[in-house]
Each structure stands twice: as C-alpha cells, then as structure tokens.
Design goal:
The protein is globular, with a radius of gyration of 22 Å. It is an alpha+beta fold and 351 residues long.
C-alpha cells in the first residue's frame, strides 16, 4: 500500500539522525507524501501519550525512526496504538530492530511506497494493575534521570475499568519488556510471582523482567535469560540478581498471564515499560502482564535473518577447537529439491 502520510521519530542528539531526517523530509516533498515529526516533547517537561501522539500526527500509515533500538521503541509505542507500520533506520550499536542503514533510507522508502516490502509481526505485551500507575514527585527526578521528561501516566483502556481482583486494564504496549525493580539501592524488592494464577515463588531480587521474544535479546538477556526466536508467542520471566537458589528463567505460553505482587514487607518498586519509567508500586500493589491482542508490524525489505543478525550484532565467535576446520559456510541449505516431509520447515530456498 503506498504511503500517504509519514511520521518521523528522530534521535535529536545525533547529527547523522538529524541529517537523515532531512533526507526523509526531502523524499516526502518529492513524492507528495505528508510528513510530520512525532514523539516531540511539547515544551519543558511535557510528553504525550501514544494515542495522543498518533492523533496529533494525523494518523500516519508509516512511522520512520532514525536512531538505534531505543529510538525504534519510541516509535513502536506510538505505532502499536493504531496498527501502523514501522521502518527503523539504523544508527545504533546493536540494532536488532532497525532494518536499513541511513545511507539507504531513500531506497527503502521507495520500496515501501511501491509495495516491494513485507511486514513482520512481533508480539507485544500489555498490563493490568491494582491501581492507576503514577510516578510520585519525590522519586520522579531519580527515576527519569537520563530519560528526559517522563511519559504521562498510562490511562485505563476504558472509562469504566474493572476493579476488585480483576484490577484495571491499562493502555500500555511493550515490545521488549515490563520491568519491576527496587527503588532503594541498599534494599531488594520482594515480589510474589504468579504464572497462570498459580504461585511460582516469592522472590527477593534487584528486579524481575517480563519480556517478549523480541525483548529476549535486551534486558532479559543481560540478566542471564535465553534468546528466543522473535516468531514465537511466549512470555519470558527472568529474575535480576535474586537472593535465592532458584535463579532460572521461566518461559510461559502467550496465554498465561504473569502477575507480580509487591509483598507487605518490601519497599516500593518502580515499573518501567521498554525502558521508560511508568509508575511506582507500594507494598500490596500488583501488576499483571499478558500478551497483547494486536502485534506490532515491522517493515522488512529482505527475508528475515534473525540468527545471522544475532551472530553479527552479538559478535559471536566460534570455539577455538573448531579453527582447524575453517569457517563454516553462512548457510546450511539444500542443493536439490527437499522432500515433501520437510517442505514445511523454514530453511533458506534453493539458489
């Protein structure tokens, strides 16, 4: 589908991103595509919610981000609200989510505009909570240090939110993860962790991460969690520096909610969504994290190559004992038509 209106998210602190933004605007002028900057702080200490940002931008049908994965996540939180496609232009250090280099952005836009691109769907997370989340003024400066102004508190998804044990459904979308972590440096947070409504364990830890398969290569990975194929539908629970013998990741099915309850003798806990502070929980409060019903749509210009990207971006090296065998070929692919029994498998096509 041709592009009619484009939203632009630019990492303003990087000259190459600003220059790339000018290139995108010039492309829009040449092709008659509307272009608007989004996720722009409106005055000192002010940011808009994802839905308000989409509304102010006039509901673009493509969002282009210029920066690293952090900038991409800024665009994703907005795009997910209205099922908008996202094209990530890479300027970062890792770049699992971005798709094209800034030097190729015009060719990438030409491909999307002419229908020569695909969309890859990624699972996202949403949240319920025992109360509306907010960041108290006494901790806002601490939590938002290095992040700039905080996003507004996540609103309820409906005007009449469910109360009692059902909690409140919040208008939250996470592509990577939801994190609950300690506020005080010298105290761990104590959490009761429930999966599918059943107690897994009570954790005393620096924090816990609930991640998507996409987010399995982010904070969860740094905390010792596994790498999952982004095509999966699963929820990854990883404790961060737990003070207990059981420190393993647990992978739940996408339809199994994970509930995190702050225990009575715990200190307060901070909640962040895709690295953005969104609220503080007091003892007795809880949040429930579940798979969102709608995925995020990533623009892909080439066939997906997650494992090649994993090898490249994580700088994976081969075992020294394999040096005598030489470097393995980059693809393991058939040289003749594959049997019917394995045609259903995802393997590289014949050259």
């Amino acid at each position: 589908m041709p592009i009619s209106r484009l939203g632009l998210v630019v990492h303003g602190g990087r000259p190459e991103a600003v220059a790339g933004g000018r290139t995108v605007r010039q492309w829009c002028e040449r092709t008659g595509v509307g272009c608007v900057d989004i996720d722009v702080w409106q005055g000192q200490g002010s940011r808009r919610s994802g839905r308000d940002e989409v509304r102010a931008a006039g509901s673009p049908d493509l969002i282009v981000t210029l920066g690293g994965d952090g900038t991409f996540l800024r665009g994703a939180r907005i795009a997910a609200k209205k099922n908008i496609r996202v094209l990530g232009v890479d300027l970062g250090k890792v770049g699992f989510l971005t798709e094209t280099a800034v030097a190729d952005v015009e060719r990438a836009l030409d491909a999307v505009h002419s229908g020569q691109s695909e969309c890859e769907e990624r699972m996202t997370l949403t949240m319920r909570a025992s109360k509306l989340l907010e960041i108290p003024t006494d901790v806002e400066q601490f939590l938002c240090y290095g992040h700039g102004p905080a996003l507004p508190p996540p609103p309820p998804q409906s005007e009449l939110p469910m109360q009692d044990d059902g909690g409140i459904a919040l208008d939250v979308t996470a592509l990577n993860d939801v994190v609950v972590e300690k506020l005080a440096r010298d105290h761990q947070v104590s959490l009761g962790v429930y999966i599918a409504g059943r107690l897994l364990a009570s954790y005393s830890a620096d924090g816990v991460v609930v991640a998507t398969p996409t987010g399995s290569t982010a904070y969860s990975f740094a905390a010792g969690g596994p790498v999952l194929s982004p095509r999966m539908r699963a929820v990854v629970f990883t404790p961060v520096a737990p003070h207990m013998a059981f420190n393993r990741t647990v992978i739940a099915n996408a339809d199994e909610p994970i509930t995190l309850r702050v225990l009575p003798h715990s200190g307060r806990a901070a909640v962040s969504v895709d690295g953005q502070p969104r609220g503080v929980l007091d003892p007795g409060d809880w949040i429930g994290v579940t798979a969102a019903p709608e995925p995020l749509r990533l623009v892909r210009l080439h066939a997906a190559n997650f494992y090649g990207r994993l090898r490249e971006r994580m700088r994976l090296t081969d075992a020294p004992a394999t040096a005598a065998d030489g470097e393995a070929p980059p693809l393991f692919m058939p040289t003749r038509p594959v049997p019917n029994a394995v045609r259903r498998l995802d393997v590289p096509p014949l050259p």
